[in-house]
Amino acid sequence: MFYDNNFLAFHDLSAAGLFLWASSSVTHFLQYDPSEIVGMSPFSLIHPDDLEACRVTHKEHVLNEIVGTHMSFRLRRKDGSYAPCMIFGCLCYQYIISCYSFEEEVNERPRKPIVHGVHSAVMTRIVGSEKEEFERISRNHNTLKSDTWNPANLQLELRACLLLNRFSRNITIMYASPSCELIFNIDPDELLGKPLLLYIRADDLGNFVDQVDQVKSSTALRHIRF
C-alpha cells in the first residue's frame, strides 16, 4: 500500500546508491533540505537492523535490472528519530527512481524489512538476440561480484523515464530522462510541458487512456504496451 505522504528521489547505480536529486517534500518527512541529501547514501539513514537486507535488495535491483521493487524499512530523520516507510524503486538506465512513502502512525514495526514485491524486467526486452542478451547479462554479473562496483562498467538495457502529471487529462510530461534522445530521437527538453498522448499511435490511444485512468484512481502498477 502507498500513502499520500511521500517524496521522490533519484539514486546513482553505485553500491552506495547515492542521492542525485530529491523532491522538496523530503524536508517534511526527513527534515533535510534537498541540497543536503544530494550526494548522501540512503544506507547512512537506514536503521541498522534493516541495513543488510536493503543492501542485498539494492544489489539485486541493479544486477537484474528490476523494473519495480516494493520494500518496507525505517529511515532516520535529521533529529535522529526513525520514520517507517515503503519504497517503490525502478531502475531506468542511468539511475534508480524511487518514491518513498511514509506511514503517519505505526503501533508495531516488523523486526526485519519486508520486500513486498519485485517486478521483473523480462517483458520490457523487445530487441536484440538471445546470445547478445546472455552475454550482456553475464558481463553485468561479473561487474557486480564484489561489494563495490563501477556503474560505468555496466551494460544496461536502454530505458527512458517520463514523470507525468497525474492530475492532467492529457498526462502532461513533467520530466524526461536524457535517454529519451537515444530511444525516441527527441531532445528531452522538447517533451516538457507537452501531453504524452500526442506521442501515442492513434490505434493504441483508447486502451492506453483506459489503463492510465485505472492507475490514476488507485495505487496500482501496470505494464502497458503501446
Automatic annotation (TrEMBL):
InterPro entries: PAS (IPR000014), PAS-like_dom_sf (IPR035965), PAS_fold_3 (IPR013655). It holds the Pfam family PAS_3. Residues 13-65 form the PAS domain. Coiled coil: none annotated. It comes from the Eukaryota. NCBIfam families: sensory_box. This is PAS domain-containing protein. It comes from Entomortierella chlamydospora.
